[in-house]
Specification:
115 residues; mainly beta; four-stranded antiparallel beta sheet; 0% helix; globular
Length: 115
């Protein structure tokens, strides 16, 4: 099973980005998925989660600005990020939420927000 996150880039504060993560080789449809991020020098943190039936949850720092969604037919989870702030700068990863299903993190996708 592989996770491939992409869609990051450099954006000015107030801008938007849409991240995608494709899960290949595994059972995606019923699994609880999450987007995580790790800023330089900081620990990885959970940003948003979505259950197999589409229930979502967000970290307080992104609530109202980020939206997580999924396309089970495409084995893909998305993160729409609006009104980006410099403190959103980080490498973003997706992974299973359930620890026993957690995969190696991979490279993630870099998001850089300039002020």
């Amino acid at each position: 099973v592989q996770l491939q996150a992409f869609g990051g880039g450099l954006v000015q504060a107030g801008g938007s980005l849409r991240l995608s993560c494709v899960v290949s080789g595994g059972i995606f449809r019923f699994n609880h998925m999450g987007w995580y991020r790790q800023a330089s020098g900081k620990e990885r943190e959970l940003v948003a989660t979505i259950t197999g039936i589409g229930s979502t949850n967000y970290a307080d720092s992104v609530k109202g600005r980020f939206t997580i969604s999924r396309d089970n037919a495409e084995n893909t989870v998305y993160l729409q990020m609006n009104n980006l702030k410099p403190e959103d700068t980080a490498v973003y990863f997706c992974n299973y939420v359930t620890l026993s299903k957690r995969l190696p993190w991979g490279q993630g996708t870099q998001v850089t927000v300039s002020s």
